[in-house]
Design goal:
Blueprint (H helix, E strand, L loop, with lengths): L2 H25 L1 H7 L13 H22 L4 H26 L7 H26 L8
Helix pairs in contact: 1-2, 1-3, 1-5, 3-5, 4-5
């Protein structure tokens, strides 16, 4: 693991946390709540922000590592691969959860969640790609 991957992980973690707060915590929160079958104790009254922030680190590391191996060295070079990786991973997890749990009122949640996470992951990928490309010649990007 090299320093650029670690720095890209840090940048993607911060972007993921902030974009996640905006996208999932503000813009889509009410819609997700309306689509979720609520059970006693399902949601914490106050989220543990430290754990929430830490949860972004492995995802950011996965994206930074993959983007480094793919040669992504720019904002746009990081966006599409990270969006695709994020969308496919979330789609898989949502399908698994849907197959085993009675959690949502509609399968539309899977579609919206996949698209929202593609946006979220794509923005994280932009941050990681930008950091990975810093200090390199423009012709090498």
């Amino acid at each position: 693991m090299n320093m650029k991957i670690l720095l890209a992980t840090g940048a993607a973690t911060v972007v993921g946390f902030l974009v996640g707060w905006l996208l999932f915590g503000l813009l889509l929160m009410g819609w997700y709540e309306s689509q979720t079958i609520m059970y006693e104790g399902l949601h914490k009254a106050i989220p543990d922000m430290g754990i929430l922030f830490a949860a972004h680190i492995p995802w950011a590391l996965m994206l930074a590592y993959a983007l480094d191996k793919m040669g992504a060295r720019s904002l746009m070079g990081g966006m599409l691969p990270a969006a695709i990786i994020s969308a496919l991973a979330i789609l898989s997890m949502d399908l698994f959860m849907s197959s085993m749990m009675n959690l949502w009122h509609s399968p539309l949640v899977i579609v919206v969640d996949t698209v929202a996470n593609a946006v979220w992951g794509g923005l994280m990928g932009m941050a990681a790609g930008w950091v990975l490309g810093r200090g390199e010649n423009a012709s090498a990007a």
